[in-house]
Amino acid sequence: MKKHLLVLAVLLFVAFKAQSAPRTLDIYFIDVEGGAATMIVTPLGESMLIDSGFQEDRDAQRVLHVARDVAGLKQIDHYITTHWHRDHVGGITLLAKLFPVKNYYDHGLPTAPANDINVQLIEAYRSVSGGKSIALRAGDEIKFLSERPIPRLRFRILAANALVVGEEAGAPQIKQCGADFKPIEEDKTDNANSLGMILTFGGFRFFNGGDLTWNVENKLVCPEDLIGPVDLFQVNHHGVNNSNNPAMVRALKPRVAVIDNGPRKGADPKTYATLKSVREIEAIYQLHKNVVSTWNDNTASTFIANDEEKCQGEFIKVSVNATGRSYRVEIPAKKIGTTYQVR
Ligand SMILES: [Zn+2]
Questions:
Q1: pLDDT in tens, the chain (343 residues)
Q2: 59: CA distance to ligand 1 center in Å?
Q3: How many Å lie between the centroid of ligand 1 and the Cα of residue 247?
Q4: Ligand 1 center from residue 153 Cα (angstroms)
Q5: Cα–ligand 1 centroid distance for 335 (angstroms)
Q6: Alpha-carbon distance 207 to 231, whole Å?
Q7: How many CA atoms lie within 13 A of 243 on its CB side?
Q8: How close is the Cα of 132 to the center of ligand 1, in Å?
Q9: Using an 8 Å Cβ cutoff, are 309 and 292 in contact?
Q10: Is residue 76 within 8 Å of 67, Cβ to Cβ?
Q11: pTM (2 d.p.)
C-alpha cells in the first residue's frame, strides 16, 4: 500500500512538473562566422535545421554541440538548405556523418553548372541525402507534430527560385512596384533563388529569408504584403546591403532582429541603419561585432554574442513561451536575456 502511494506521489509530481513547465519553442542562431545555421526545436521535441554553415569541421561541430549537448536532441528531423552557396550547404555533409539527419529539403538541385555553385558540394549533398531531398515551392508547408493545448506550429515557404507565393513559373525577378522602389540589377546568383520562410506559433511570427536579395524582397511585400508583421526577423543575407530592402524591412515591422553575420561579413552599416529606422524595433542582435565598421554601426555589446574576431562561436537562443505570447532572447555565454511580448 505504501509503495502504491509513493508511486502515485511520483506520478503526481511528474504530472505537476509537466504542467507547470511546458516546453518552449526554441530557436538557436548558431555562429558559423558569416554563414547561416538556424535550429528550431518545437515544444514536442521535433527539430529543424535551416542551413549548416561552411564545409569546415568547425561549423559541423558547432551545430552538433548545440543540437546534441545544448538542446538534447537525438537527431535532426528536418534539414533545409535555403540555397546552394557554400556558407549554407557546406556543413551538412560532415554533420550528417556525426549525427542522424532525417529529411532533406531545398529549392531544387541545380540543373546547369553555375559560377557561384560548387559542384563538389552539390554532389556531397546528393550523396548524404540519398538523392531523396524534397524541392520546395512558394506556398508549400512543412508539417510539425502538434498537441493541444500547445498552439499549432505552421511553417510555410513564401519564396523559392525567385518566385513568391501566387506567381507563375517564369515570372520576372524584377517587378516594378511601390513608389520608392528602385530595383537593383537582376541578381543572377543563387541568392535570388533562396527559400524565404515564415514560422508561426500562436501569435509569434518568425521570418527567415535566407540570402534573398533586393528585387525578390520587394515582391514579397508589393503589391501584396505576403509576410506580415513579425516578432523575430533573421536579417536577410547576413545583413549584406544588396539585401534588406527598406520596403520589406518596414513591412516586417520586426520587434527583434538577429543578424547572423561574421566579424568581417555582413551587418553592413546601411542594413543596420535600415533596421534602426523601423519604429517598432526594440532590439537588434548580432552574432558578431562587425570589426570593420565603428561602434556606431554595431548594436551594443550586450546584444552581440561574439565581440572578438577570434571567438568561441557563441550562439543566440530565442525561447517562445508555450502560450506563444512572449519570448525570451538570450546570449547564454554572457548570461544576458530579455523578454519581449508578442504583438
Ligand atoms: Zn550566405
A1: 456 666 666 555 555 444 445 699 999 999 999 999 999 999 999 999 999 999 999 999 999 999 999 999 999 999 999 999 999 999 999 999 999 999 999 999 998 889 999 999 999 999 999 999 999 999 999 999 999 889 999 999 999 999 999 999 999 999 999 998 999 999 999 999 999 999 999 999 999 999 999 999 999 999 999 999 999 999 999 999 999 999 999 999 999 999 999 999 999 999 999 999 999 999 999 999 999 999 999 999 999 999 999 999 999 999 999 999 999 999 999 999 999 999 8
A2: 14
A3: 21
A4: 26
A5: 28
A6: 8
A7: 24
A8: 24
A9: no
A10: yes
A11: 0.94
**Pairing state between β 76-80 and 101-106:** parallel
Alpha helices (runs of H) in the chain, residue ranges in sequence order: 2-20, 57-64, 86-89, 92-98, 119-128, 214-221, 246-252, 269-276
> How far apart are the C-alpha atoms of 117 and 114, rounded to whole Å?
5
**Structure-derived torsion over alpha carbons of residues 141, 22, 259, 86, reported in degrees to the nearest 10:** -50
Q: 101: which strand partners?
A: 76
Q: Give a three-class secondary structure readout of 132-199.
A: CCEECCCCCEECCCCCCCCCCEEEEEEEECCEECCCCCCCCCCCCCCCCCCCCCCCCCHHHHCCEEEE
Q: How far is CA 338 from the centre of its chain?
A: 19
Contact 343, 206 (CB under 8 A): no
Q: What pLDDT is stored for residue 6 in this prediction?
A: 61
pLDDT at 112: 86
How far apart are the CA of 13 and the centre of ligand 1, in A?
A: 47
The values of phi and psi at residue 150, to 5°, are -65, 135
CA of 263 to the centre of ligand 1 (A): 14
User: What are residue 183's phi and psi, to 5 degrees?
Assistant: -65, 155
Question: 141: closest CA among 160, 117, 124?
Answer: 160
Residue 307 carries which DSSP code?
-
| Residues 2, 207: Cα–Cα separation, whole Å | 54
Residues 6+ apart with CB under 8 A from 310: none
